Sequence to fold (274 residues):
Amino acid sequence: MTNIRCDHAETERRFCALHAYYAEHVLAGDAFRCVHCAACKASYTNELGRYAEGQLNAPGTHYDLTVDGRPLRIVVVGQESGAGLAHTSMMQRRAAITRTADEQRFVAEAGYDARTQHMKGITSALRLLFGHGLGNEYAGEFIPLADGSRVHLLHCFALVNYLLCSAHSHQRSKRGESTAPMRRNCLVHFRATLAILAPTVIIVGGSTMWPHVRRAFDALEPVGEALFKVRYAGHEALAARFTHPSAMHPHNWGSNHQMPYLLETVVPTMAKVR
Fold:
């Protein structure tokens, strides 16, 4: 990839459009407005758990890209936020990704903690999409733009959680316990988010989420073992379906950049996307 340009105005337009949708239908300040709120909360009955409402998504600062004139908009789909913090704004979401890019590394080093397996998996997938190859060196995570600047690849995508609320047990704080009503009711918000962001590449990290995510597509055609051509809201994209980067061995491709699943499944799939 030699001629990569960012349309900052279009990225800002999408950010504002998504903000307007969320403000009307999900969260405006501390006012949670989702019409499904009561039903979803009532469906989570774990007395030892916590339900966190209103955890918004946001595109990165360099989301709208073109590569040799061809649009590239990348969405990575997660299940829900693992932080368990209610009323997370779009700016807070973007700031969290920025901290991961600036203050953490693929492998822990002096002054820097290691990223989570989830974020390491995302880093590897993005490196492959941008043609940088796998690795753990920080310098390889920067994308040269046509204007002479460089940007960290974690600013060049949108991490979109399917669920805008989360349910977690205090005993297993990082493992989501979403209910069937939550997964069913959040589909409308997920579809709206995709329609606004209009990704050309969608990466789904989590086998258990795929049956729910695929309902957002109007058409789906397999073009590889883990790759599909999809249509949604008048747009087309390539959608890759992988295990979660922190899944059980041997599918934990976020552990490092040499895991078998990463090399045997993610690498060839991303090559087809490029």
